[in-house]
Amino acid sequence: MQGKIKILFLCTGNSSRSQMAEAWTNKLKSEKIEAFSAGVSPRPVDPRTIKVMAEVGIDISRARSKDVSEFKGTAFDYVITLCGDAQESCPLFPGSVRKLHKGFEDPVRLAAASQTEEEAMAHYRRIREGIREFVAGMPGNLTIEG
After folding, report:
1. Would you put residue 14 in left (φ > 0), alpha (ψ -120 to 50) or beta?
2. Which positions are catalytic?
């Protein structure tokens, strides 16, 4: 492939996991990959997501949630769903886009059951690091699964 690989990370709300994935990709792989993120039902970017990314020196305080419809007609090389809901409701994209699913737990949902803020943030940190590890392996780990 001659140009950058173009990837859309898709989640339900584009409020946490897909924002982390886009930010990590832009930080770690910007020379090879052009990353975007969107949601099938966008909600505002989660404040804890902004905080947890700032802990590792990545400022997403100006990020905004985007509806997947904003990318209608955009030619992506990959659309990577990060949650089951997005995987099930992923719209069709033009061209030879490859769809992948790499599921991560929802830190927002996990944090809702936490007793303390530190416990809630521990969920975000764990998911953040899982996404970082996945992104660090790109593009070699971008294979179609089952």
Report:
1. left
2. 11, 83, 90
Distance CA 75, CA 29 (A): 19
Distance between CA 7 and CA 32 in Å, rounded? 11
Structure confidence by residue, pLDDT tens digits, 2-41? 689 999 999 989 999 999 999 999 999 999 999 999 998 9
CATH class of the domain at 5-136: alpha beta
Give burial (CB, 10 Å; 0-12/13-18/19+) of 5. Answer: middle
Give the residues across from 100 on adjacent strands: 80
Residue where the block lists tokens 């790499």: 102
101 in Cβ contact with 81 (< 8 Å): yes
Q: What digits encode the pLDDT tens for the residues 61-116?
A: 999 999 999 998 888 999 999 987 665 666 666 567 898 989 999 999 999 999 99
Question: What value does the mean pLDDT of the chain take?
Answer: 90
Strands (E), 1-146: 5-11, 33-39, 78-81, 98-101
Those residues whose C-beta lies under 8 Å from the C-beta of residue 93, and which sit 6 or more positions away, are 8, 71, 74, 75, 76, 79
